[in-house]
Amino acid sequence: MSAVSDAGQENPFYYPVSSVKMVSGQGLYLYDEDGKEYLDCISGTFNLILGHNHPEVVEAAKRQMDQLVFSSSNFNSLPVDALPSALVAISPPNLTRAHLRSPGGSTANEGAIRIAQHITGKRDVITLFRSHLRQTFAMTGLSGFSTKRTPFPNIFPGGIQVPPPYCSRCFYGQAADSCGKLCIVRIDDFIKYSSTGSVACVLVEPIKGFPFSDYWEDVGTVERYFRAHMALLSDMPTLGLDDMPKTLLPAIKRRYVKSHGNVINSIVCDDCDTPASIENSIVYPQVEISPLATIRNSVILPDAKVLSRAVVDNRILLEHDICS
What we know:
324 residues, 3 domains, 17 strands, Aspartate Aminotransferase, domain 2, single chain, 24% helix, three-stranded antiparallel beta sheet, 19% strand, alpha/beta, UDP N-Acetylglucosamine Acyltransferase, domain 1, globular
């Protein structure tokens, strides 16, 4: 959905933007113009590791702006001098200098590649399927998504994309306990047949993008996360049982129970063996449920505990949470 301005015109973004307008943030949460609260599960765009509006960060920024907003890199300044000194202090002994001119992920990745190519004298870069390596021309050429490269007739050369070592969604359809690390072994084949024979480095993006058809429609809020799970229990579920997200213990099978004893219209795992009452709920693997507990309209995530006589109603019980 494109964002719409107050004047009713589409905003001039070249990419799709939600119509939700954020106005403030605090800690783990964001707030829109209607006061609705959102749990920020990715720390902004992975750049707010201390949360939104951390008071010490805000105070330090205000204090610095009152003194000096910008100084050319031709000069020294107290905060700029302090940062590389701190970085060098926590780095391995052979890293004695820091370069502070990289403003984003693309240039940081390119800097790492240049170092690898300079040291090894080689050129090719191995990246993983579904890796988003940022948006400069070079990183687009190395992206693990063909859609990033499609619009451009010429792209940065020397990129080799290989399947990621991802046991939950193995590209080769193998089981982790018997695969022989095929995802790693096959990289030798890619190097042999797809590279120039001159590989400088492997660039690993730890976060992958996986499309889910009609699922996780927008789980930026707890409400939508809950709604997506509840949709699995409808007469026309949005996702097949075998395609449910395998967050933990993917080998444990799941089953849908329409009505059997104490379990009604719920998805439970084969390791869920309890006489507790479970209705219209989804119970993930390795959940401990006491016999006299009651679970209704809820999502119970891995390793949660529901104690005797506890009632879990219309909620999400997080990993390792205890409901008493």
